[in-house]
Amino acid sequence: xxxxxxxxxxxxxxxxxxxxxxxxxxxxxxxxxxxxxxxxxxxxxxxxxxxxxxxxxxxxxxxxxxxxxxxxxxxxxxxxxxxxxxxxxxxxxxxxxxxxxxxxxxxxxxxxxxxxxxxxxxxxxxxxxxxxxxxxxxxxxxxxxxxxxxxxxxxxxxxxxxxxxxxxxxxxxxxxxxxxxxxxxxxxxxxxxxxxxxxxxxxxxxxxxxxxxxxxxxxxxxxxxxxxxxxxxxxxxxxxxxxxxxxxxxxxxxxxxxxxxxxxxxxxxxxxxxxxxxxxxxxxxxxxxxxxxxxxxxxxxxxxxxxxxxxxxxxxxxxxxxxxxxxxxxxxxxx
Length: 335
Fold this sequence. Notes:
Layout: H1 12-22, H2 27-46, H3 60-73, H4 78-95, H5 120-129, H6 135-145, H7 149-153, E1 160-161, E2 166-169, E3 178-181, H8 187-206, H9 218-221, E4 236-241, E5 252-255, H10 258-272, H11 281-293, H12 298-305, H13 310-313, H14 330-333
Antiparallel strand pairs: 1-2, 2-3, 4-5
Helix pairs in contact: 1-2, 2-4, 5-10, 6-10, 6-11
């Protein structure tokens, strides 16, 4: 009688990756969660004679020791420490299916921070300093639509609606779709960018390439979608790559890497001498604040930004005040 060979049980981190994908977590969340669990295990390996220990062997004391280490020794930000805690919580509840004990570590508490907001003149100076295509157009879209960085990079041709003067944001934060206004200033630039996408698509077809990367299993559901114009990225990459979640898959064309836009915008901020620590996200903050200054209500701003709650958008009302808290400074009265 032949023996039946059972498949090897996947390693812990592979189990965690599989669970994250089953629950449709974002790729970046998957990367960060797996990295935090690996750091946690490596931390205790270095303190245990370089011997790996399974998370079930590391109890309340070891967990508290690690998170205290992050807060006290590493002095990480509150949001960073909370992300590490969320990763360990996911591992215990979803992968190991055990209850995480009550942790009394020195966990940092996230404070309330006002967003960095550029004035209209500062935005104008930064945009003028961005003379590199297509990053100049992408920066205009960040400010003119309130899109997040990755939402702009992932924009596809089919989601630009010139007739209705709107852009559809697909699968945004929380897996939600929304519509944002298409700035008239960006129409010509977007049309030229779509012409480039069409030319790149024709070249890919001639070379017999697989086409553009598609979400989930759409490449199997719609066989021709990867080589159709509508599914092409407006800001496509010049290089081919493989899907990091499917490293054995074919070479596909992805969107421009978000780091390229970030570096270009940071360089423009430095050259324009704005004097604020402005990256891509403050353009979204500036979009919301300037809408409120123009008289639009907070509910409209909430819907355009894609916030789940109106309370989240209320933070922008704090930067609308003239001066801190809108008070008249007693020193100015003495003049």
